[in-house]
Amino acid sequence: SCAIWGGDLTSITTERENSYLYIIIPDTVSNCWIGLNDRDVDGTYTWIDGTELGYTNWTTTMSDNSNSVCVQINNTEEGYWYSVNCENTSNTFMCKRPSSFSFQ
Asked: Reduced to 3 states, what is the DSSP secondary structure of residue 71?
């Protein structure tokens, strides 16, 4: 988990950051967890690290599934975001940590 490394699931605040993350996801990975979810209030997405939600990159084919509360970036569709069920723990995840973090 990201906490082991002193971070959280990543927040994405700009198109440039989203593009970078999309590019660095290995070709063998089709989807990757990011730190956006609507666990607290259905339909209101927030970043797990408290970053304000401004930039988004939702797919145009996003489902309206009330069980889909976590978000992943898709590596096969230009880095679009999908709302998915949080129970799929086999997905790859992307972490972000403060640059001041040091290993003890």
From this structure: strand
